[in-house]
Design a protein that fits this description.
The complex is a heterodimer of chains A (787) and B (263). Chain A is of the alpha+beta class and 787 residues long. In chain A, helix 17 packs across helix 18. Chain A is globular. Chain A starts with 14 loop residues before the first helix and ends with a helix. In chain B, 33% of the residues lie in helices and 22% in strands. In chain B, a hairpin with a 7-residue loop joins strand 11 and strand 12. In chain B, helix 3 packs antiparallel against helix 4. The longest helix of chain B has 19 residues. Classes of the chains: A alpha+beta (787), B alpha+beta (263).
């Protein structure tokens, strides 16, 4: 019988009742008395000198309250970058200012030039059309290689070039890797593009600024994955508001995929304008604005080299990447191609020598930052594509080649500075082969052939790193933040609990999964536990939700706080039963004295804590509320094996994903149903990247894929029915729950499996094609077949 | 969106009267016009809805055996009402957009817009349909004048479209991955006196007839008849989703598939 509560139960998501019945409370559902609306006039050219902004005609338009331009933000701070990278020479990266509204120049299509605040949204839009902007257009830099060429137009005039940094990792390995590649029996080389993606959360971004004159307090309602981070960044770096006078509230958040981690100009603007105007100011992004202003993802161009000996053992691995930063440094942009990417270059393999070079480049495009997986999908794609190519070149079975090079002993210190605590890569590989019906492929290929289709299969094994930590290490690496998590557990007199967590759900199901942990620890019903998150006024300082960190880091903080609660409750129980607290056991919601039939219920103890008539007041304080901050000692390392089977129509190039198997090792699993849902969502995004999605600029920096007419999102009928398994479990060794994190795995592990499968299908069809850049749209596949 | 006036006439005469005002535009299901207005790319002062006009609704057969479809008939109605009488057209209508689009969008609105990737124009050309307006009748061969271009005058309203029913027909649509409009769509219609082939989505000049294929198929109505043909890539659309070469190739592939499906 499956459990119906506690750890390991597929408890249905309690938050879905409100989400599915239209009763969620998202930021746009909030409307404040007297609220005004802002519309941002955005640049329609990618690069230009801002010679003048004439707002006089617009100011006379009906309903207009005030129009702000970059001049209003002189002396105000700019949007900060949260991670400083040190380059190969030991110098800090080039870090340009990022004003709230453009000053002097516009640097990408969508760069905000002016903000019209009016009584209604439509009046603000009408007035924006009457603003006269004088821009002297400059040549745009879009292509990264062109941006680095001598004499290229500079995105930021005050920087020496468009190079943000040239990073080498591990720099000391550089020469040894070069030598190993030169002397190797076989070297496989691949050049590939990990294309730019638009994040496309279902809920567009929204910000509402509010100001209370009576206590000089500002409040920002925003669509954020991490309200405390926004409070710190906006308060300290942009607006100069101390944290005790600034409250940030992120209510229900409808998806983020990373794009709602970052601090955006619109948040700072609404908070700033509300104080100036003494009126709430609201901004709701349109979908078109989202394409021009939400930080985008990926956009790496990479040359990969893998050196092997005659038996197929990996000897050395080298990657050279150009990573697009866009026009400004978004909050965590600089960490993505470096520490979130280079540290995963070993994958699941015991390659002894690895060197990763990354040049981060400014271009006249929307800023790029973390997007589901953030650096790890790029690392996995490079490695797993080049392994597949090497297997073909050397005539070794791709499954066997991977197996031969697997890391099998743990803990394992990679040559790229991380230590994998635990894993069993052969187990997930075997499980994937089993659920994919690997051995009966030939039969299915025959069926496909009868329909005139070419069937192919692709395999990918991946590792990912979740819950980036510890804070002391990331500080050394340049992070301007800590990466702990917090929880306050408050037990009420009648026994119910409220957990105030620094994690914040944007769809993950924390309100269901977190209580399952406490229910297990105390032995009570999960419905006795309520989760509070998303409001800096009633949660402890926390770092929020991204990088698949919530259960591993936030959940661990909650466990630590609950352990303190239980320890104190045991003292109370010992007092009530006149026993030693060392003899008290807690099970099924009752405290007992070991070896006796004495027992007090959970509720008796909690009541005693708040009605301390019979209470050890000389030893402990009344009340039952504890806070813990948890700073992990290491990342967690989920891993798995994914297998994709496709059919390719040789006449049209159309690829159909016929089946997809995912075997993941997430360590211990709190709620298998939620985990499965996370994998499904990740696979949809990964298949979207592999086959459909592409954010494209023309040579002038105009965004060609600015609407859903041209940006292809995956739809249900683009996806197969997945075969998902997470029964292979090697628990994390360094967090109290033994959990690893599952949110990004699907998006990390699936693109290489799809591309490997398509290349395999084309090879089986007699086409000597070794690589096609994503997305593998029909037009691209056909073009590859017909060069 | 800018403000506008919405008029809901119940007769063609009242609609024509309402359309004579300044900046007035007919509104079918609004599946193209309303998004365009929301993006502020169009700002008509008055919209004249055709949906309440009973004489522009539904499907019937005239004395010449033609299928006559009222201009305000939705794609979903066309799908249902031509399923047995003109399955080629029914199949085309069933693949337009998604259920919401098919239950709102109208045949008259689609044909009047002449989007180069719309489906209906291919069927109109391939069957030699007649586009009926409040003023006149226009042969399909004269109606589609290039991307978004038609002979419709200001305020002129498509009231009906008359389709000669082919002996056999089929529409093959290859979807653009993002919009799911036709990247290329081919309608093949076989009549007693020959075969016509209407191609949408492919050409920079909008929907067109592939005359070489018509000739070949009129002699031999089989996929092999077109397999040796090649359509020049010149003048084909090239964009994010397919090159001119690819579109020209797809025209041939889809024509063959339509012939096979219709045979």
């Amino acid at each position: 019988m499956p459990k119906d509560s506690g750890i390991g139960a597929s408890t249905k998501r309690r938050e879905d009742v409100r989400f599915l019945t239209g009763r969620g409370r998202y930021t746009d559902d909030i409307n404040l008395r007297g609220q005004a609306y802002v519309h941002f006039l955005r640049s329609d050219v990618a690069h230009g000198t801002l010679k003048g902004v004439d707002t006089s005609a617009a100011e006379a338009m009906p309903g207009v309250i005030r129009i702000f331009t970059g001049a209003d933000f002189e002396g105000v701070g700019g949007l900060p970058c949260g991670w400083q990278i040190t380059d190969r020479q030991g110098n800090p990266m080039q870090e340009p200012p990022h004003p709230v509204l453009a000053q002097g120049k516009v640097r990408h299509v969508g760069d905000p030039i002016a903000a019209v605040v009016a009584d209604s949204f439509e009046e603000a839009r009408d007035a924006a059309e009457a603003i006269e902007v004088d821009i002297e257009e400059l040549p745009a830099v879009v292509d990264m290689k062109a941006a680095l060429a001598d004499g290229a137009p500079k995105v930021h005039d005050d920087l020496s070039s468009n190079l943000c940094y040239d990073w080498g990792f591990v720099e000391d390995n550089r020469q040894a890797v070069d030598d190993a590649i030169k002397g190797a029996h076989h070297v496989t080389t691949l050049e590939l593009v990990n294309q730019r993606l638009a994040p496309n959360a279902m809920e567009p971004r929204v910000a509402i600024g509010d100001y209370a004159g009576h206590n000089d307090e500002s409040t920002l309602y925003t669509t954020s994955q991490n309200p405390h981070v926004i409070r710190l960044l906006m308060g300290a770096f942009v607006l100069g508001i101390p944290e005790h006078k600034l409250r940030v509230i992120a209510p229900d958040v409808g998806g983020g995929f990373g794009s709602k981690i970052f601090h955006y100009a619109e948040e700072a603007f609404c908070t700033f304008a509300a104080k100036q105007l003494k009126r709430p100011v609201k901004w709701t992004s349109t979908r078109t604005e989202a394409f021009m202003s939400d930080a985008q993802g990926r956009d790496h161009v990479t040359k990969v080299e893998l050196a092997l000996d005659a038996e197929g053992n990996f000897l050395a691995y080298r990657t050279d990447t150009l990573a697009n930063m866009g026009a400004y440094l978004s909050t965590f942009s600089t960490s993505v191609p470096t520490w979130l990417h280079g540290t995963l270059a070993a994958g699941n393999y015991k390659t002894p020598l690895i060197y990763v070079n990354v040049k981060a480049v400014f271009t006249n495009t929307v800023p790029v930052d973390a997007y589901r997986g953030a650096g790890r999908p790029e690392a996995t794609y490079q490695l797993e594509r080049v392994i597949d190519k090497a297997a073909r070149e050397m005539g070794i079975d791709p499954v066997e080649l991977r197996r031969r090079n697997f890391i099998t002993e743990f803990p394992y210190a990679t040559p790229v500075a991380v230590e994998y605590d635990t894993g069993d890569y052969a187990a997930t590989l075997d499980k994937a082969l089993e659920i994919a019906d690997w051995d009966s492929f030939d039969k299915r290929a025959e069926e496909s052939a009868k329909k005139g289709l070419w069937r192919g299969r692709g395999i990918n094994t991946y590792i990912e790193a979740c819950g980036i930590a510890p804070s002391a290490l990331v500080g050394q690496l340049g992070a301007r933040a800590g990466l702990y998590e917090s929880a306050t557990v408050r037990v009420n007199a009648t026994g119910g609990l409220v957990v105030m967590t620094g994690s914040h759900s944007h769809g993950q199901g924390h309100e269901t999964a977190f209580p399952q942990v406490i229910a297990e620890m105390i032995g009570i019903d999960a419905n006795m536990v309520e989760i509070v998150h998303g409001d800096t006024a009633n949660t402890p300082m926390g770092m929020g939700t991204y990088g698949s960190r919530s259960i591993a880091v936030g959940g661990s903080a909650m466990v630590r706080a609950t352990e303190k609660i239980i320890a104190k409750a045991k003292k109370i129980a010992a007092h009530l039963m006149e026993a030693s607290d060392a003899d008290i056991e807690l099970k099924d919601g009752a405290f007992t004295v070991a070896g006796t039939d004495k027992s007090v219920a959970w509720g008796d103890v909690t009541l005693a804590a708040y009605v301390p008539h019979n209470y050890p007041l000389e030893d402990i304080e009344p009340g039952l509320e504890e806070t813990a901050f948890y700073d992990p000692s290491n990342f967690t390392y989920p891993a798995g094996a994914y297998i994709c089977e496709v059919e390719v129509d040789p006449e049209t190039g159309k690829v159909t994903v016929d089946r997809f198997a995912a075997a993941d090792d997430f360590g211990n699993v709190i709620n298998p149903m939620i985990v499965e849902g996370q994998v499904h969502g990740g696979l949809a995004q990964g298949l979207g990247q592999a086959l459909l999605e592409n954010c494209v600029y023309d040579e002038n920096g105009q965004l060609l894929s600015a609407t859903y007419m041209d940006y292809a999102m995956p739809r249900a009928d683009d996806l197969p029915s997945y075969r998902v398994d997470h029964s292979c479990q090697t628990p994390c060794t360094h967090n109290p729950l033994g959990v690893k994190g599952c949110g990004e795995a699907g998006a990390i592990g699936s693109p290489p499996a799809v591309v490997n499968a398509v290349v395999d299908a084309l090879q089986r069809g007699g086409k000597d094609i070794t690589h096609i850049d994503m997305p593998l749209s029909p037009g691209r596949v056909w073009a590859a077949m017909n060069v | 969106m800018h403000n506008f006036e919405l008029v809901k006439p119940t007769t063609i005469a009242d609609a024509v009267q309402a359309l004579s005002g300044e900046d007035a535009q007919p509104l079918g299901g609004g599946q193209t016009l309303i998004p365009t207005m929301k993006q502020r790319l169009a700002a008509p002062a008055r919209l004249v809805s055709t949906l309440g006009i009973a004489e522009m609704q539904g499907v019937c057969t005239d004395d010449h055996g033609r299928i006559c479809i009222g201009g305000a008939t939705t794609h979903a109605s066309v799908t249902a009402e031509t399923a047995s009488t003109f399955p080629g057209l029914s199949g085309l209508a069933a693949k337009i957009g998604d259920p919401a689009v098919r239950n709102r969008g109208t045949i008259g609105g689609s044909v009047a817009n002449n989007d180069p990737a719309a489906c209906y124009p291919a069927a109109c050309l391939a069957t030699g349909a007649t586009i009926v307006t409040d003023k006149r009748e226009i042969a399909a061969d004269d109606f589609f004048q290039g991307m978004f271009a038609t002979p419709l005058e200001e305020g002129e309203l498509i009231t009906e479209i008359k389709f000669p029913v082919p002996q056999a027909s089929n529409y093959q649509k290859f979807e653009q991955p993002a919009s799911r409009f036709a990247l290329v769509g081919v309608f093949v219609a076989r009549f007693g006196d020959g075969v016509r082939v209407g191609v949408t989505g492919a050409s920079e000049d909008g929907v067109f007839r592939w005359s070489a294929a018509e000739e070949a198929l009129s002699g031999n109505f089989s996929a092999e008849a077109v397999s040796g043909l090649s359509l020049p890539a010149e003048g084909m659309i090239g964009d994010l989703h397919g090159s001119p070469d690819y579109r020209a190739h797809l025209v041939k592939v889809l024509t063959g598939r339509a012939v096979t499906a219709a045979s």
